[in-house]
């Protein structure tokens, strides 16, 4: 048996555009299964797969020779980065702490990393190295968020989407909005929309009960997923945030309601990966489409305000990791 080493290979919003990232996105329900497949395919001892709208990363404890295979699994080295030993541990802590996110300090990522680890744990593909690493990472992530100012003014991707809608309209008080999807990202987005005074919020989701639950929380209206096209005729903003493996909204859907809408502007904000809205929708004259990569510009404005805190956070991460005796580093 060769040397066991901690290795991370991944791609994210800095190294790969959304059309590449969506090819390698793994659904939350498939993370454990995918980690198990990777472990077998790579012949390594342990595996965890993290997949969010901004990244797909594979963490393994195994022989360093697997790096080439990992690159191949993520479409080749062109869009990938590779970290090993302590650099991989630091990277994971930065990810979990929101330091490597499109929106600096965002909160969703901590829960997403936890879910990815638990999926791998339940699939039985983690042992000593990754168990210790991830448990230590969660403790460090919590410390970063409570002992530094990294979250001051932090905005989630959902909030950034709403910022963009507000910039487009000037304000959201008279706008009607439909959200496709009823997951955590949709909930955050809906709360943000509500706080800006959107007049009506419609929620469409494959599980009608979940749509109903979210709509009730927001004083909005649930829409059966098969009926979302009917609502398209009246809304001003559509936010795509489902976990569907393919596009849902197509050019012909919008063409069908243009006359009913009297050709009023319609704004699509697609925060799903894989994307919910076919890019061809943007070819329609009065339609404006923004995908998740577009949100980076707004996120960067918030990033500048908190960038001074990055150094403080990174110092804390290195200090805490150096105290911990982790294998494979």
What is the tally of helical segments?
13
Average pLDDT confidence is 91
Count all strands and give the number. Answer: 10
> Do you know the CATH topology of the largest domain?
Beta Polymerase, domain 2
Q: What is Rg?
A: 21 Å
> What's the name of the CATH homologous superfamily of the largest domain?
Glutamyl-tRNA reductase, N-terminal domain
Computed structural class: alpha/beta
Question: First CA to last CA: what distance?
Answer: 18 Å
Biggest beta sheet attributes: 6 strands, parallel
Q: Which strand order does the major sheet show?
A: 7-6-5-8-9-10
Uncertain segments are: none
Shape: globular
Describe it for me?
This protein has 329 residues and is of the alpha/beta class. It has 2 domains: 5-152 and 308-323, Glutamyl-tRNA reductase, N-terminal domain (Beta Polymerase, domain 2, 2-Layer Sandwich), CATH 3.30.460.30; 157-298, NAD(P)-binding Rossmann-like Domain (Rossmann fold, 3-Layer(aba) Sandwich). Helices cover 43% and strands 17% of the residues. It has 13 helices and 10 strands. It has helices at 18-21, 31-42, 67-73, 85-96, 108-122, 128-147, 157-169, 184-195, 208-217, 228-232, 251-255, 295-306, 308-323; strands spanning 5-12, 46-51, 55-62, 81-84, 176-180, 200-205, 221-224, 237-240, 266-270, 287-291. It has a 6-stranded parallel beta sheet with strand order 7-6-5-8-9-10. It has a 4-stranded antiparallel beta sheet with strand order 2-3-1-4, sandwiched between helices. α9 (208-217) links the parallel β6 (200-205) and β7. α4 (85-96) crosses α13 (308-323) and α5 packs antiparallel against α6. It is globular. The two termini are 18 Å apart. The mean pLDDT is 91.
């Amino acid at each position: 048996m060769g040397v066991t080493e901690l290795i991370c290979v991944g791609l994210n919003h800095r190294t790969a555009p959304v059309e590449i990232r969506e090819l390698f996105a793994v659904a939350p329900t498939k993370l454990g299964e995918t980690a198990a497949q990777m472990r077998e395919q790579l012949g390594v001892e342990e595996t965890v797969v993290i997949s969010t709208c901004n990244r797909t990363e594979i963490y393994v404890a195994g022989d360093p020779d697997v790096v080439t295979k990992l690159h191949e699994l993520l479409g080749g080295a062109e869009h990938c980065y590779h970290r090993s030993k302590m650099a991989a541990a630091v990277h994971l802590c930065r990810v979990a702490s929101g330091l490597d996110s499109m929106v600096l300090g965002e909160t969703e990522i901590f829960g997403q990393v936890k879910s990815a680890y638990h999926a791998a744990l339940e699939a039985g593909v983690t042992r000593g190295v990754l168990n210790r690493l991830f448990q230590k990472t969660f403790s460090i992530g919590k410390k970063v968020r409570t002992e530094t100012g990294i979250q001051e003014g932090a905005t989630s991707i959902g909030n950034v989407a709403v910022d963009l809608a507000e910039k487009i309209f000037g304000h959201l008080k008279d706008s009607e909005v439909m959200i496709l999807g009823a997951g955590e990202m949709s909930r955050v987005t809906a709360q943000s929309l509500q706080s800006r005074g959107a007049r009506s919020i419609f929620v469409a989701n494959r599980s009608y009960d979940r749509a109903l639950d979210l709509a009730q929380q927001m004083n909005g209206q649930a829409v059966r997923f098969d009926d979302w096209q009917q609502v398209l005729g009246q809304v001003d903003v559509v936010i795509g945030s489902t976990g569907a493996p393919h596009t849902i909204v197509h050019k012909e859907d919008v063409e069908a309601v243009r006359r009913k809408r009297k050709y009023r502007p319609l704004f699509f904000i697609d925060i799903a990966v894989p994307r919910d809205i076919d890019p061809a929708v943007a070819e329609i004259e009065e339609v404006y489409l923004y995908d998740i990569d577009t949100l980076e510009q707004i996120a960067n404005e918030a990033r500048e305000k908190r960038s001074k805190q990055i150094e403080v956070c990174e110092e804390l991460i290195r200090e805490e990791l150096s105290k911990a005796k982790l294998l494979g580093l």
